[in-house]
Design goal:
Length: 137
């Protein structure tokens, strides 16, 4: 997620309950928006919506996320915030997608899910790790 890296897509599945999905997605947006170093917005068919626009109106409402400079790798920051948000209610879920890779984070993760999240972070670390220092000796 470094400058020019792939943006993350965050979807809050709710089993077809569009009102609940909109409410939860907006709550997740507000939570992530308050975090230093993260930039979030709403996806629609043409990309992120402009401020004050309601959303797509068709299909699932989703967020995109990108980062500014942060001390920890962006995936760690973003995943930690999503885990905290999901933990507020055990039925919350967020599907995190970057490129062709994705992982589901729930409000009540078991050991297997924790391993899947760690494996996902290991796979995407190249997208948000520190830039290589070509001038290093």
């Amino acid at each position: 997620m470094r400058d020019g890296g792939s943006p993350w897509t965050l979807t809050v599945p709710t089993g077809g309950d569009t009102l609940r999905q909109e409410r939860l997605t907006r709550d997740l947006h507000d939570t992530l928006h308050r975090a230093d170093g993260l930039v979030v917005g709403f996806h629609d068919a043409d990309g992120p919506t402009e401020p004050g626009r309601k959303g797509t109106g068709v299909g699932e409402l989703a967020l995109w996320a990108a980062t500014a400079a942060v001390a920890r790798p962006a995936s760690q920051v973003l995943i930690a915030l999503i885990k905290e948000w999901c933990a507020k209610e055990r039925h919350r879920k967020v599907v995190v997608t970057i490129g062709d890779d994705s992982v589901e984070i729930t409000g009540r993760p078991d050991a297997a899910q924790e391993r899947m999240v760690r494996a996902f972070q290991d796979r995407v670390v190249g997208d948000d790790g520190p830039e290589p220092d070509d001038g290093a000796a």
